[in-house]
Design a protein that fits this description.
Blueprint (H helix, E strand, L loop, with lengths): L13 E3 L4 E2 L2 H10 L5 H4 L1 H5 L10 H16 L4 E11 L9 E13 L6 E11 L5 E12 L6
Antiparallel strand pairs: 1-4, 2-4, 3-6, 4-5, 5-6
Length: 152
Amino acid sequence: MSGLYYEEFEIGMEFKHALTRTVTEMDNIMFCAMTHNPQPLHLDEEYSRNTFYGQRLVNSLFTLGLVIGVTVADTTLGTTLGNLGMTDVRFKNPVFHGDTIHVVTRIKDMRESASRPTTGIITFEHFGFNQRDEEITYCVRTGLMKKKEHDA
């Protein structure tokens, strides 16, 4: 298990995740198919060619999921009990097929759970960037984390 327990986090801690991922056309098409999203901006090359992007966009929810997924091994793998919420989601720049995504996570806040003494609540800030270091997405995510002293 490589995730961190509640006690191992500190406010202001920053992770520059080593894992990167190049987004493929197949990723985008399969995600749209699996989520029943027929948006031509994601699927129709001819339609998209006539937009101001000039090409298809990668589905923003795939992008958000990928950015959060990249963070798991370094932060929450085996030590989280689930997400409590996501706020302040923004998509600053589009993602296109062939873009390579890298992620930075910062610990924004943390507190012990008032109702579950064996857990703590961590507030993560996730920043996704493309290969040109342009911010593509940002999200604040709150997770319920195990405390090490109670994980036997």
